[in-house]
């Protein structure tokens, strides 16, 4: 099945495809990755249509905010990846505060449409997000996945990805300020 997937930057001309992915996920439909970019008050006030409009303006910017996965030309998944500095929540977060002063990029969100789940698409999105960030000058990549073994409940949302997926891709844990949310890093150069 992996050979039937392709990956492209999330650009404004792919808005319809991106929205198809987000709209297939109840959280994604209303969040649009605004959680990471916008101050909490703006994010909550924009839940739904406000975040949708905000995301459309983000796509009009000079740098794609992520990548889109396709299965035989059908939009199948999303991975948010961009320089850490653009994410307001990361700038203000104590648990996810920088581990050093290197200009890292961050991978912070995965959404896979229901028909494509449990096929390894998140791992492929991660692989292509690393390639995308590297091609756009990232020195290192960070992520803030869920360590399912340390969670009190298995019902946790996995939008930031599972720790095992990142470790399997060569990321290393560099900090852990919350029991179930490590910071992992991959050197790109």
From TrEMBL:
InterPro entries: Acyl_CoA_acyltransferase, GNAT_dom. This is GNAT family N-acetyltransferase. GO terms for molecular function: acyltransferase activity, transferring groups other than amino-acyl groups. PROSITE patterns: GNAT (PS51186). It comes from the Bacteria. The keyword Transferase applies. It comes from Rhizobium sophorae. The keyword Cell membrane does not apply. Residues 5-189 form the N-acetyltransferase domain. Keywords: Transferase.
């Amino acid at each position: 099945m992996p050979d039937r997937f392709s990956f492209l930057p999330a650009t404004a001309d792919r808005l319809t495809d991106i929205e198809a992915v987000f709209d297939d996920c109840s959280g994604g439909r209303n969040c649009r990755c605004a959680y990471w970019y916008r101050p909490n008050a703006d994010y909550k006030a924009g839940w739904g249509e406000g975040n949708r409009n905000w995301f459309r303006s983000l796509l009009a910017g000079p740098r794609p905010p992520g990548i889109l996965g396709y299965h035989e030309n059908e939009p199948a998944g999303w991975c948010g990846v961009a320089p850490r500095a653009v994410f307001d929540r990361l700038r203000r977060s104590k648990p996810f505060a920088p581990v050093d002063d290197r200009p890292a990029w961050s991978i912070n969100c995965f959404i896979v449409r229901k028909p494509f789940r449990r096929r390894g698409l998140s791992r492929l999105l991660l692989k292509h997000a690393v390639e995308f960030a590297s091609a756009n000058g990232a020195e290192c990549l960070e992520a803030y996945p869920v360590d399912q073994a340390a969670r009190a409940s298995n019902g946790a949302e996995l939008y930031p990805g599972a720790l095992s997926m990142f470790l399997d891709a060569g990321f290393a844990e560099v900090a852990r300020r919350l029991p179930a949310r490590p910071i992992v890093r991959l050197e790109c150069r």
